[in-house]
Amino acid sequence: MRFLKGHGTENDFVILPDHDAELDVSATLVARICDRRTGLGADGVLRVVRTKRSHEVAGQASAAEWFMDYRNADGSVAEMCGNGVRVFARYLVDAGLTGSSEFAIATRGGLRQVRMEPNGDVTVDMGKPTVLGESTAHVGGVDYPGIRVDMGNPHLACAIGDPVVQLDLTHQPGFDIGVFPSGVNIELFNPVGVSRAVMRVFERGSGETRSCGTGAVATAVAAAALSGDTTGTWTVEVLGGTLTVILDEDTSYLSGPAVIVASGELMLAE
Ligand SMILES: N[C@@H](CCC[C@H](N)C(=O)O)C(=O)O
């Protein structure tokens, strides 16, 4: 099985080209691939499939040639991945699978328009974040109130007074399962200066990761809300680098680096 490896601000992915949907990529296989000791190691898998060959998103085939079939490290399926879609775009361009610098990618969360920037960054139109109300995350014996944000996938973004560097995120933070029956990605952030936040994230299905694109947008939404804003340009510092989020009236944009670092032949099989 041919693979590539890439990352966006150190949110890392194994890319599996499966253009005609011929592979049987089970949850077990994904978990084995993502294992950092016995597999390749990654936060998730991006399976590259022609949209028209996928029964899940065939309705998007007229607008997007390629479908990002995203899986978390534990093998679970997610609707969207902001860094993943940027790395996916980088793969399509590098592999010559698109001739354009602006194109759409099909995801379970809907179409995402991407743009390759002259400086090598990749920008994605993430759609309009939906604020759903409030909830609470529980970390290290402390309850942190936050804002529920739907980015196609579920988020709980919490501004906290304690420095995020001090948090122990080796375990799943507590959350209200009644509010998030399918689980949730939890962002904890410190607002710093003007339109800047330092964020850590515990991702549903992957644990703590060094970056999360949908989480960065959710954090920008929650940080803006602290000052009563719904628009603006935000810098979100994550463990793996820096992401830029633009919130406007109608949508949101996520920008940052996305690179392919390796390719090869995978010997793992079912
Ligand atoms: N790292 C991603 C989010 C991946 C999906 C998430 N773990 C979920 O289950 O919703 C990003 O960059 O957005």
From TrEMBL:
<feature type="site" description="Could be important to modulate the pK values of the two catalytic cysteine residues">
    <location>
        <position position="155"/>
    </location>
</feature>
<dbReference type="InterPro" id="IPR001653">
    <property type="entry name" value="DAP_epimerase_DapF"/>
</dbReference>
<feature type="binding site">
    <location>
        <position position="185"/>
    </location>
    <ligand>
        <name>substrate</name>
    </ligand>
</feature>
<keyword id="KW-0413">Isomerase</keyword>
<feature type="active site" description="Proton donor">
    <location>
        <position position="81"/>
    </location>
</feature>
<keyword id="KW-0028">Amino-acid biosynthesis</keyword>
<feature type="active site">
    <location>
        <position position="81"/>
    </location>
</feature>
<dbReference type="GO" id="GO:0008837">
    <property type="term" value="F:diaminopimelate epimerase activity"/>
</dbReference>
<feature type="binding site">
    <location>
        <position position="153"/>
    </location>
    <ligand>
        <name>substrate</name>
    </ligand>
</feature>
<protein>
    <recommendedName>
        <fullName>Diaminopimelate epimerase</fullName>
        <ecNumber>5.1.1.7</ecNumber>
    </recommendedName>
</protein>
<comment type="pathway">
    <text>Amino-acid biosynthesis; L-lysine biosynthesis via DAP pathway; DL-2,6-diaminopimelate from LL-2,6-diaminopimelate: step 1/1.</text>
</comment>
<feature type="active site" description="Proton acceptor">
    <location>
        <position position="212"/>
    </location>
</feature>
<keyword id="KW-0457">Lysine biosynthesis</keyword>
<dbReference type="Pfam" id="PF01678">
    <property type="entry name" value="DAP_epimerase"/>
</dbReference>
<comment type="function">
    <text>Catalyzes the stereoinversion of LL-2,6-diaminopimelate (L,L-DAP) to meso-diaminopimelate (meso-DAP), a precursor of L-lysine and an essential component of the bacterial peptidoglycan.</text>
</comment>
<feature type="binding site">
    <location>
        <position position="72"/>
    </location>
    <ligand>
        <name>substrate</name>
    </ligand>
</feature>
<comment type="similarity">
    <text>Belongs to the diaminopimelate epimerase family.</text>
</comment>
<comment type="subunit">
    <text>Homodimer.</text>
</comment>
<feature type="binding site">
    <location>
        <begin position="213"/>
        <end position="214"/>
    </location>
    <ligand>
        <name>substrate</name>
    </ligand>
</feature>
<feature type="binding site">
    <location>
        <begin position="203"/>
        <end position="204"/>
    </location>
    <ligand>
        <name>substrate</name>
    </ligand>
</feature>
<keyword id="KW-0963">Cytoplasm</keyword>
<feature type="site" description="Could be important to modulate the pK values of the two catalytic cysteine residues">
    <location>
        <position position="203"/>
    </location>
</feature>
<feature type="binding site">
    <location>
        <begin position="82"/>
        <end position="83"/>
    </location>
    <ligand>
        <name>substrate</name>
    </ligand>
</feature>
<feature type="binding site">
    <location>
        <position position="11"/>
    </location>
    <ligand>
        <name>substrate</name>
    </ligand>
</feature>
<dbReference type="InterPro" id="IPR018510">
    <property type="entry name" value="DAP_epimerase_AS"/>
</dbReference>
<dbReference type="GO" id="GO:0005829">
    <property type="term" value="C:cytosol"/>
</dbReference>
<dbReference type="GO" id="GO:0009089">
    <property type="term" value="P:lysine biosynthetic process via diaminopimelate"/>
</dbReference>
